[in-house]
Amino acid sequence: MPFPGAYTLVESFNKLDPRVQARMMLKAAHTLHPGWTFCLFSAAVAHGLQVPQELLSRMHVAISPSESRRKHPGQVACHIDKGGGHVLADNIPCTTLIQTTLDCLCASTFRQGLAIVDSVLHHRLATKEQLIEYFAAHGKGRRGIRQARETLKHADGRSENGGESIVRAVIIELGFETPELQIEIEDPMMPGVSKRADLGWKLSDGRYILAELDGFAKYLTKGARHSKVEKTELAVQSMRAERLRESHLNLTGAVILRFSFAQALDTSYFFQLLATAGVPLAGERTL
């Protein structure tokens, strides 16, 4: 485990999801340093939020103005406590959820912050109104508050995971109309039964452009109840069901865009994909 004084099996640790790794390191650090209070992205992990992987490389600890900032330099970043109160999250001392959200959105990009705040709303840990009120009361004059408020404006709890949130952020950054989330369309082969798409746009002629984040990993069964071979077979079955669902949606006249996370981050490619499909730009509403 990459933290001084903490040990684990390297092979097992490296197979874990990055957020699970970060949570394990937080628990180890808390055991070794029970007086530490975690903040920013470390607190967000403890609160169960969707923190992008690139923000997990260091731990973040809240300190008093007179306290030394030298706590394992390069691995632990110290930040002056903003005074928003402390709680136990996952049995780890942390800044409060709402203070953590403000801190994270002030210190992150639009894409990163949207993944975090969407997960707050998705899990109903706070309402958007509560966040707006708290940001107004405690964010004045803070570095990054303008970005934080802009990110919060676009927050939507219907996003089911951080990947979807980041893709939506890229779409907005590219100047396209903000997509609707979790769109349900009646299956023409099964009247009364709806099929759902991750996100999309309804055009003026009633047709839909549906966008779906793809990737083999999304089909893999979680947990240890199945062997690797069984998980792969179940994933293949899920992919077949997905293709059948897509073929039924095609019968409605919908345009279905399927892309990987890497393709969404390739902004030149992604802009061309959306524009060629006819996704409306922001401000030229065709609905």
The profile of the biggest β sheet is: 4 strands, mixed
Provide the β-strand percentage band. Answer: 15-25%
Helix content percent band: 40-55%
Choose one word for the global shape. elongated
**Total number of β-strand segments?**
9
Number of helices: 11
* Arrangement of strands in the largest sheet: 6-7-8-9
The helix-and-strand class reads alpha/beta
Distance between the termini: 52 Å
Q: Average pLDDT across residues?
A: 85
Backbone CA Rg: 21 Å
The H-and-E topology, N to C, reads as HHEHEEEEHHHHHEEEHEHH
Instruction: Give the tally of structural domains.
Output: 2
Low-confidence stretches: 216-227
Q: Oligomerization state of this entry? A: single chain
Could you explain the architecture of this structure?
Strand 8, helix 9 (228-250) and strand 9 form a beta-alpha-beta unit. This protein folds into 2 domains: 10-168, no CATH class; 174-277, no CATH class. It has 287 residues and is an alpha/beta fold. The strands form 3 sheets. Strands 6-7-8-9 form a 4-stranded mixed β-sheet, sandwiched between helices. The model is unreliable at 216-227 (pLDDT under 50). The protein has helices spanning 10-14, 18-32, 40-46, 97-106, 110-122, 128-138, 145-153, 162-173, 228-250, 261-265, 267-277; strands at 37-38, 59-63, 76-80, 86-89, 92-95, 180-186, 194-202, 208-214, 255-260. The termini are far apart.
